[in-house]
């Protein structure tokens, strides 16, 4: 029964991904799907390190980027007919190169976890990012390298002219990679990674080399990051230095953390949320990076287990069947909270706008008038006050919904 | 256009804070032109300044006078590429998705190269939905040479053309016996270095190149160690292709060390640079550019600059070529009565156009490179009618080269699409 | 050649001492709270921007005094209302929090001050050459920078080794529970140390702003280097941070000043390669070209061969 339940989740996952283009297949939507697909594999591979292995890395983009660079070089080789195979295997090429890089770097960086590992990853990341600008032959300098994906043999008549054709390839790869990464967590190696994360000494006592366990996780993580890099290369047909530098490493950390480190589904959520924010929000506001920063800090402060953790918090209430009792209290808190957000965002945008008349949610606001500002401030503070007033009732409702009369059950992490 | 409406409604429901860059004319379907440059992040000031210039030019020349092609307004659609090649690809897909077929882009040759390749591939794979790239500022010569494309037009002089003028000017200065080259370690810095050595060797073989230094782009905290090398090399002049913060830091360090030599540059003005260098840089910094600075030759251009300053008090007309490019583009549309990129491209080839300064611009058909007179200006506060950054300091043009003398050969072998 | 060497040494000293001002705060914070503060260089940037704004109204000297104070208060507030809360979720959460804070501060600075380079000038009173050597000036302002940094180093060292509060801090580093049992308010000490550490970073920003240009990218340029110093010097060791700062400052300065590179090595070995050799980029590499990445190379080597750093005695 549990088996069927699990299997149905996976089948639903595959079906949703394959059905997405039916929902909307504009070039823009497909572009966003592709970004999500790449981000999901990349974030999941990062979670293998940090979430499951307890290794905080500031240079994970290195394996993503190196895999991508080799993938693009393979595309170029195809153009010059040095090699000839279907481009659906390109992500695997990237993955193998990512694995190779991870084996080499992991051989000396996984001795220790914690700060030492974090600092080595930072140093290696900076070194490789800087070298990529010096070794122009392989990395192509700041313009990067570019290869055409249409020179491989067609697959069932598909020549991969359009991004949507790449999307189906990506969806299958996401499915395969996710399945394998999930299976990895169920293998002894994956279980030991958790043990070493939580208590390396005890793990050593029962005969496992903590270093070896970390090394295996590290290599697997490099492999999947490389696959993500290969997909990136297929989708954009180019790759540059920025895809292996610290900014990309930082973004994947953000994705995994916002999504929720302790949960397998967390990084998937994080990848989807951040991709959506990046590609949609930036079209509407110059300040989107500021909002992203604020959201990130608020997540760390108030949702230490990320969005997935927030959803899982409701497990008890759900099992108890009292989730519906929470709906109204949530609504009561949400309305003033959303109004507060609208007010705060409006004020930020107003002070940023240089025009005298500022268009906001269909209103025309005069940015130079004191009355507008006063109204905005009163509105914002008022809704903040209302939000804080509504919190006690939410807390009470929460406690009631989560109190189990007899046996108190711990939720697993 | 129709299919993606759903996702757009969805996204606008989700995300508030809509900013529209729309004009007031709604009578007829607007001609939509994309402007793709960094509008957020570290390079945003240059991108937003460019956006203001193109919006102002569209309003000033056309929208306030009844539009183009019989009453259609121009709508500028801002796309933020954050000066990142990856983001450029994402924004390009958005442009295509929204049916935008003309893209203005200028900042960073790396981005221009990416866009050029992407557009070539897209146009080959999607006949009938072609996109045109209007490059108003990326100066890597390769864009109109080995990588030239039918769908790319450049309205700025490329790096070698500019260096040709700069080295002519340097060659006339008999006081200069030695030259120090310093630049960012990337393709443009490399082009500047290689061609300075080659051209100076031809024009003034007696000038000794006493240094040829590359530093990593955007990573140098303090330029003083580099300046120490410049001083000890005994150089009479410095040439650099640096831009942004690297340019300011370098100039400041040279000035602080008391080294009194001329500095020849490409990008040492506007967007905070002129104000930061201020009085220390007077008569030391020179840069090469198109469209003469002070004194402005024609009343028409003076009016234009005044009108721009009235509308945007904190910005300057830093890149007059944006307006030139837009005017030439519209001229091509009017000539063909079409907004189809293929027709426009054919009409732009070998177009001759007189700019507000009375300067003739020729768009060469063989490689899609524009030619117009080039100028060398000095950073000063004397004779400045239109200053930069409201600082009282600005550029005074002291050396002019006519358009026909800037023409250089091109290795371009253009592949022309057939229709 | 001699003048290059002398000036390279002076430049290295200026950079090294400036880096020490940042690294000292960072290493103190780390040794007490176990937090590697990723936003440390952002406080340095905030210092420069606050001082710029103050200097527009009241001149440089008031900025020198008040900007670090404001930054210190901000830092203390971050510790009190941010880090302390995140502390419950573990070290990774703290690191990630400071990482996000660095991101947010950079965006906030662009929001309030704009993305342009700011015209933050050194005071006129220090606008003269301190001495001229071989035709090259050494500005008085740089001398002033060296003076301030040395004073800070001496002051910090005396406070930590001679004063009562210093002894409590040192005790809190190694035995926080014992110190708390003795009746000291350990959370208050943490907040104070964080405030002082960030104020030091702010001070570094105030005096570096006019020379290294004040722009939104100034934190990124310095941020990771400071980490490198703290790790190389040995986490938690003030003396180690001092040595590592000078080491990195001088190393970079000498590397830039040098004129050697792979071509010289190959000539020496009598080997030569064609220009189209696949590794041509490697054979033409010069030392000045790779100077900025030398600290990271050093970091990786130190961590592999001596994970405790030069002067450190503990790993976590």
What this model shows, in words?
The complex is a heterotrimer of chains A (413), B (419) and C (316). Helices cover 74% and strands 3% of the residues of chain A. Chain A is mainly alpha-helical and 413 residues long. Chain A folds into two domains: 2-296, ABC transporter involved in vitamin B12 uptake, BtuC, CATH 1.10.3470; 315-402. In chain A, strand 3 (357-360) and strand 4 (363-366) form a beta hairpin. The model of chain B is unreliable at 1-26 (pLDDT under 50). In chain B, the strands form three sheets. Chain B has a seven-stranded mixed beta sheet with strand order 7-6-8-9-10-14-15, sandwiched between helices. In chain B, strands 2-1-3-4-5 form a five-stranded parallel beta sheet, with helices on both faces. Chain B is of the alpha/beta class and 419 residues long. Chain C is built from 14 helices and two strands, in the order H-H-H-H-E-E-H-H-H-H-H-H-H-H-H-H. Chain C has a two-stranded antiparallel sheet with strand order 1-2. In chain C, strand 1 and strand 2 form a beta hairpin. In chain C, helix 1 runs antiparallel to helix 8. Chain C is globular. The chains are: A mainly alpha (413), B alpha/beta (419), C mainly alpha (316). Chains A and B meet through helix 2, helix 5, helix 12 and helix 16 of A and helix 1, helix 3 and helix 4 of B.
């Amino acid at each position: 029964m549990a088996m069927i339940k699990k299997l149905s989740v996976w089948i639903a996952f595959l079906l949703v991904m394959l059905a997405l283009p039916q929902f909307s297949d504009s070039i823009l939507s497909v572009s966003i799907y592709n970004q999500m697909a790449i981000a999901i594999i990349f974030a999941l591979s990062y979670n293998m390190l940090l979430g499951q292995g307890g290794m905080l890395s500031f240079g994970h983009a290195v394996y993503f980027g190196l895999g991508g660079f080799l993938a693009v070089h393979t595309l170029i080789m195809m153009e010059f007919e040095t090699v000839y195979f279907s481009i659906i295997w390109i992500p695997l090429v990237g993955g193998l190169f990512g694995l190779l890089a991870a084996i080499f770097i992991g051989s000396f960086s996984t001795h220790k976890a914690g700060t030492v590992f974090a600092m080595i990853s930072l140093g290696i990341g900076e070194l490789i990012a800087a070298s990529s600008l010096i070794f122009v032959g392989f990395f192509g300098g700041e313009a990067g390298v570019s290869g055409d994906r249409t020179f491989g043999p067609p697959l069932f008549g598909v020549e991969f002219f359009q991004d949507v054709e790449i999307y189906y390839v990506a969806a299958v790869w996401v499915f395969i990679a996710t399945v394998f990464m999930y299976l990895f967590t169920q293998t002894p190696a994956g279980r030991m990674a958790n043990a070493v994360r939580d208590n390396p000494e005890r793990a050593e006592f029962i005969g496992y080399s903590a270093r070896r366990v970390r090394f295996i996780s590290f290599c697997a993580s490099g492999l999947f990051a490389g696959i993500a890099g290969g997909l990136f290369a297929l989708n954009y047909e180019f790759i540059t230095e920025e895809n292996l530098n610290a900014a990309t490493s930082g973004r994947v950390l953000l994705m995994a953390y916002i999504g929720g480190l302790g949960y397998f589904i967390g990084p998937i959520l994080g990848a989807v949320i951040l991709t959506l924010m990046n590609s949609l929000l930036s079209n509407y506001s110059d300040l989107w990076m500021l909002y992203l920063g604020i959201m990130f800090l608020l997540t760390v402060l108030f949702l230490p287990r990320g969005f997935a953790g927030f959803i899982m918090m409701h497990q008890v209430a759900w099992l108890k069947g009292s989730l519906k009792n929470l709906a109204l209290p949530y609504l009561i808190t949400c309305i003033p909270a959303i109004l507060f957000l609208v007010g705060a965002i409006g004020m930020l945008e107003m002070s940023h706008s240089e025009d005298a008349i500022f268009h906001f949610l269909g209103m025309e606001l005069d940015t130079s008038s004191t009355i507008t500002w006063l109204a905005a401030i009163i509105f914002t503070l008022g809704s903040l006050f209302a939000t804080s007033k509504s919190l006690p009732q939410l807390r009470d409702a929460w406690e009631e919904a989560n109190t189990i009369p007899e046996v108190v059950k711990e939720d697993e992490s | 256009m129709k299919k993606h409406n759903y996702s757009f409604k969805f996204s606008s429901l989700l995300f508030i804070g809509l900013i529209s860059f729309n004009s007031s004319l709604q009578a007829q379907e607007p001609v939509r032109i994309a402007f793709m440059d960094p509008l957020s992040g570290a390079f945003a000031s240059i991108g937003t300044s460019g956006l203001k210039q193109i919006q102002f030019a569209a309003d000033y020349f056309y929208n306030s006078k009844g539009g183009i092609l019989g009453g259609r307004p121009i709508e500028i659609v801002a796309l933020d590429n954050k000066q990142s090649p990856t983001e450029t690809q994402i924004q390009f897909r958005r442009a295509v998705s929204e049916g935008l077929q003309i893209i203005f882009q200028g900042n960073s040759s790396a981005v221009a190269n990416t866009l050029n390749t992407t557009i070539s591939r897209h146009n080959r794979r999607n006949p009938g939905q072609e996109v045109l790239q209007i490059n108003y500022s990326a100066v890597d010569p390769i864009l109109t040479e080995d990588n030239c494309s039918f769908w790319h037009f450049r309205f700025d002089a490329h790096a070698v053309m500019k260096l040709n003028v700069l080295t002519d000017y340097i060659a006339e200065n008999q006081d200069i016996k030695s030259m120090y080259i310093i630049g960012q370690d990337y393709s443009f810095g490399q082009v500047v270095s290689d061609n300075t050595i080659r051209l100076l060797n031809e024009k003034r073989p007696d000038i000794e190149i006493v240094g040829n230094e590359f530093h990593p782009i955007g990573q140098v905290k303090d330029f003083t160690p580099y300046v120490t090398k410049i001083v000890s090399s005994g150089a009479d002049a410095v040439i650099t292709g640096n831009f942004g913060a690297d340019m300011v830091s370098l100039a400041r360090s040279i000035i602080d060390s008391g080294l009194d030599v001329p500095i020849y540059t490409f990008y040492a003005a506007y967007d905070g640079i002129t104000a930061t260098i201020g009085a220390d840089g007077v008569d030391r910094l020179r840069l090469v550019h198109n469209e003469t600075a002070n004194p402005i030759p024609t009343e028409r251009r003076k009016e234009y600059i005044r009108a721009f300053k009235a509308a945007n008090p904190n910005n300057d007309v830093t890149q007059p070529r944006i307006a030139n490019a837009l005017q030439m583009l519209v001229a091509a549309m009017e000539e063909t009565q079409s907004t189809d990129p293929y027709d426009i491209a054919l009409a732009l080839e070998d177009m001759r156009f007189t700019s507000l300064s009375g300067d003739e611009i020729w768009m060469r058909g063989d490689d899609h490179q524009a030619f117009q007179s080039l100028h060398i200006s000095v950073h000063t506060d004397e004779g400045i009618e239109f200053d930069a950054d409201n600082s009282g300091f600005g550029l005074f043009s002291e050396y002019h080269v006519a358009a026909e003398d800037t023409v250089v050969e091109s290795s371009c072998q253009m592949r022309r699409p057939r229709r | 050649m001699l003048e290059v060497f002398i000036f390279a040494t002076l430049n290295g000293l200026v950079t090294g001492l400036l880096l020490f001002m940042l690294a000292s705060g960072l290493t103190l914070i780390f040794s007490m709270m176990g937090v590697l503060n990723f936003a440390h260089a952002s406080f340095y940037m905030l210092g420069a921007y606050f001082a710029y704004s103050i200097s527009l109204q009241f001149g440089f000297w008031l900025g020198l005094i008040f900007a670090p104070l404001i930054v210190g208060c901000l830092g203390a507030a971050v510790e009190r209302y941010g880090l302390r809360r995140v502390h419950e979720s573990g070290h990774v959460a703290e690191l990630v929090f400071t990482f996000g804070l660095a991101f947010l501060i950079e965006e906030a600075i662009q929001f309030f001050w704009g993305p342009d380079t700011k015209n933050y000038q050194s005071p006129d009173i220090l606008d003269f050459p301190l001495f001229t050597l071989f035709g090259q000036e050494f500005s008085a302002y740089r001398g002033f920078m060296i003076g301030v940094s040395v004073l800070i180093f001496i002051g910090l060292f005396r406070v930590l080794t001679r004063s009562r509060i210093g002894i409590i801090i040192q005790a809190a580093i190694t035995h926080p529970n014992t110190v708390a049992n003795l009746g000291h308010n350990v959370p208050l000490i943490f907040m104070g140390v964080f405030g002082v550490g960030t104020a030091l970073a702010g001070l570094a920003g105030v005096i570096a702003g006019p020379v290294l240009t004040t722009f939104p990218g100034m934190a990124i340029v310095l941020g990771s280097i400071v980490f490198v110093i703290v790790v190389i010097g040995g986490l938690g060791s003030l003396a180690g941070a001092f040595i590592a700062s000078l080491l990195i400052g001088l190393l970079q300065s000498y590397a830039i000043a040098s004129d050697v590179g792979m071509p010289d090595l190959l000539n020496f070995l009598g080997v030569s390669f064609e220009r189209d050799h696949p590794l041509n980029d490697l054979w033409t590499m010069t030392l000045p070209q790779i100077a900025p990445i030398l600290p990271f190379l050093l970091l990786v080597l130190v961590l592999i061969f001596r994970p405790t750093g030069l002067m450190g005695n503990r790993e976590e």
